[in-house]
Write a structure and sequence with these properties.
By secondary structure, the protein is an alpha+beta fold. Helices cover 30% and strands 26% of the residues. The strands form 5 sheets. Strands 9, 10, 12, 14, 15, 16, 17, 18 and 19 form a 9-stranded antiparallel sheet that branches. It has a 6-stranded mixed sheet with strand order 1-2-6-3-7-21. The longest helix has 19 residues. Helix 5 crosses helix 6, helix 5 crosses helix 7 and helix 9 packs across helix 11. A hairpin with a 2-residue loop joins strand 4 and strand 5. The two termini are 41 Å apart. It has 2 domains: 260 residues, Aminopeptidase, CATH 3.40.630.10; 209 residues, 2-Layer Sandwich (Alpha-Beta Plaits). The chain has 11 helices and 23 strands.
């Protein structure tokens, strides 16, 4: 018996706990695909896979709804693999360990993967549910959503027959999403090699470590005032530079480009005997930052640690180049929507930074509901990188999803919500990338809606899934697919 076995609906939670037990980070979804196909085979349902690895399970209509339109229920198979500092976890081999804490399900030391494991569990749950009434369904599971939306990018129109699609990848109960932001990555690489440089530091090395930050989703959490570990460390080191120049030995921070960095650290050496001034300035700046983030980051910690490290270090010039780049790069909300109150229109996230083999690399993810503004911010990042002498790579991005207030699916879903709860749901756009943006271009005439249970701090080890919202979301989903079969 698993820790989630007493939760309802049992068939949904059973699938979710099984999904947690199967390693499935991005690019490693094969075992999850096998699990889905195995469960479909137990029911005698046909399955299909395309060349990129997407899976569709064809679920026949229940009695009386055979002539209803096909509805695709869609979610992704991969999860963001992030472990808490100090936690050793092999996401390709080790299971996620869920636990119940009050009304929440959390993981032990890692991301939970409720994004999008709970959505996948609901899709599989409908397959098992003898009481569910629906027309023909396609359970559509995509690959590698979190690291590039490869499954959605490579979906061919012929693979998906249904043109009514319910995406189960949003994280706020009682809200219908009908629009999402587009996004694009910017990878900045700065060559900091200096083969003739010999470190002459005589005072040992000092590690500056930022930890205890909440982290979170770089889209839906970007407006919460959370601190970026990468930007915090840059501010600490930039302030310390004024107390006396130093050499960087190492610097790293963040885990994923779509996660707000929950920590960062650097090792420096001091060539001119100013260690006391360095420590004092870092400590004073840390206190200033602690006050800035006291409401949103109560666990904020800065450690200053003397260590023995005889590895090579960067020149002063290259150290300053890295600091200038980190200080100049923007992070956070750029603009709010002038049309939708409270909606972030454009943002950028300094997700990951690392110094490896004399190359300093940062990976950023920019999001916007306005394509021209997305491209403008990415150009800004490119210019900043160019001024620092760095090279830039821009992998394939993804488009936004335009809202359709006249959607027949939305109207039916609104009626269902009113009948069940006596009020209207919130109809919203999300400042995050959903595969719906790509499906709007890939599947001509598709009518879409996105729903999901309540989740917080996804893409971080603090990820939590609200237990009461899961049965409500599942019941709502079942009611919508039945109403679509009757009315669409």
């Amino acid at each position: 018996m698993g820790v989630l076995s007493n939760l309802d609906p049992k068939h949904v939670w059973e699938h979710f706990e099984n999904i947690c037990s199967i390693p499935h980070p991005s690019y490693h979804e094969e075992k999850i695909a096998e699990y889905i196909i195995e469960k479909a085979n137990e029911h005698g349902f046909a399955t299909r896979r395309d060349k990129i690895g997407n899976v569709i399970v064809d679920v026949p209509a229940t009695k009386g709804y055979e002539k209803s339109p096909i509805v695709a229920l869609q979610g992704h198979m991969d999860m963001v693999p992030v472990a808490a500092p100090g936690v050793k976890h092999d996401f390709q081999k080790d299971p996620i360990k869920p636990r119940i804490e009050g009304n929440l399900v959390k993981a032990t030391g890692t991301t939970l993967g409720a994004d999008n494991g709970i959505g996948a569990a609901m899709m599989l749950g409908i397959m098992d549910d003898k009481d569910a009434e629906h027309g023909p369904l396609e359970l559509f599971f995509t690959t590698n959503e979190e690291s590039g939306m490869d499954g959605a990018h490579n979906t061919e129109a012929e693979f998906v027959k249904g043109r009514i699609l319910i995406n189960l990848d949003t994280e706020e109960w009682g809200e219908y999403y009908i629009s999402c932001a587009g996004g694009g990555d910017t990878i900045i690489k700065l060559d900091v090699s200096a083969p003739d440089h010999v470190c002459k530091c005589k005072t040992g090395a000092i590690k500056v470590k930022v930890s205890g930050l909440r982290g979170g989703h770089s889209g839906i959490d970007i407006n919460l005032g959370l601190a970026s570990g990468n930007k915090v460390l840059a501010r600490l080191l930039d302030a310390a530079w004024d107390a006396g120049e130093f050499h960087l030995k190492t610097i790293k921070g963040g885990n994923k480009r779509n996660s707000i960095s929950d920590g960062a650290e650097a090792i420096v050496c001091l060539e001119h005997g100013n260690a006391d001034a360095f420590r004092k300035t870092v400590a004073e700046t840390a206190e200033v930052l602690r006050l800035e983030f006291e409401k949103t980051e109560p666990g904020f910690i800065v450690e200053i640690i003397d260590i023995k490290d005889d590895s090579s270090c960067l020149t002063l010039d290259n150290t300053r180049k890295i600091l200038d780049l980190l200080v100049a790069l923007p992070h956070g909300v750029i603009t709010m929507s002038p049309e939708v109150a409270g909606l972030v229109e454009t943002s950028t996230n300094l997700g990951v930074m690392e110094l490896t083999d004399n190359v300093f690399k940062t990976t950023m993810l920019t999001r916007s509901a306005v394509t021209s503004h997305l491209e403008s911010v990415k150009k800004q990042l490119k210019v900043i990188a160019g001024l620092a002498g760095a090279d830039v790579e821009e992998p394939r991005g993804y488009p936004g999803w335009k809202p359709d207030m006249d959607s027949p699916l939305l109207k039916i879903a609104m009626e269902v919500y009113r009948e069940k709860y006596g009020e209207d749901p919130k109809v919203k756009a999300i400042h995050a990338g959903l595969e719906c943006g790509l499906f709007s271009a890939k599947l001509p005439g598709v009518d879409m809606l996105s729903i999901g249970p309540e989740m917080n701090y996804v893409h971080s080890p603090n990820e939590e899934l609200d237990i009461p919202s899961v049965p409500k979301t599942y019941d709502l989903l079942c009611a919508i697919v039945k109403a679509v079969a009757e009315k669409y």
